[in-house]
Specification:
By secondary structure, the chain is mainly alpha-helical. The chain has helices spanning 3-10, 27-53, 65-72, 76-88, 107-131, 134-152, 156-173, 177-197, 203-218, 222-238, 249-253; strands spanning 62-63, 92-95, 99-102.
Amino acid sequence: MPRATANLRAIRPASRAPRVGKKQVPRAAAEADDASVQTTTRRIAEAITAAIVERRLTPGTKLAEQKIADIFKVSRTIVRQALHQLSRDKLVTLEQARGARVAQPSVEEARQVFEVRHMLESAMIKRAASQLTPAQIADLRVHLRAEQAAVHRTDVPGRTQLLADFHVVLAHMLHNDALADILRELVSRSSLISLMYQSAHSAEHSFAEHVAIVDALEKRDARAAVKLMEDHLHNVERNLRLNPRVPDLESALRPKT
C-alpha cells in the first residue's frame, strides 16, 4: 500500500462507516502487491543497468515503454517507475516529447564522475588495506580469476561487468551498502562515458592493475594500494577522448596522400 494512502486512512475519523458495496482489500494482501511491484520495478531497472554496463545499450538508445512492458510482461506503469528510478541515477533521460533514452553524458559530467570516483575509492582502498580479512582477499582472488577468464575468451560483456564489479565488491566487503550503491551508480555512469569517449578499452591492462591492487591489500600496504587505485582510475580516464582534436576546415577536407 502506498505510504500516502496509508497516512490518509490513518487520519480518518474512527466513527466513519465504510462505503457500502466497496470491496475491502486486506492490509497484508495490499502490502504484498506493493512489494511485488517494487520487486518487478527493481528487476527491470537492474536489467537495463546491466545492459548499459555490458555495452548492449548504447548512449541515446530509445527505451520504448510498451516494448519493455511486452518483454517483461508487465504494465507500462511499472516500466515507467523503473525508468524514473534510472533517471534519478542519471542513466536515463526523460523528455516529454521524445520519451526515455539512455543518457548521453557530457564531457564535463565525465570529468566530474571520475573526480568523485577518485575521492571515494582512494578513501575506500585505504580502509580496505587495514580491514579486509584473509578470507576476503581469497574471495577477491576468485573474482580476479573470473576477470582473467573473461578477458582471455574475449567475452566483452562478461569482462566489462566483472571489471566494473571489482570496485563494488570491495565496497561490499567493507560492509558499507551505501558506499556500494553509490559506487554501483558511478561505475554504471562510467560505462556510459566509456562508450562515448573511450579510445581503446584495454581489458588486459585493467585486469593487471586489479591484481596489483589486491597484492597490495594482501600485504596491508595502504600507501601502495591507494597509489595503485589512483593510477588505475587515472589510466581509465586518460584513455577517454575528453579533449578531441578538432581540425580546421582545410586539414579536414584536404585529400589524403
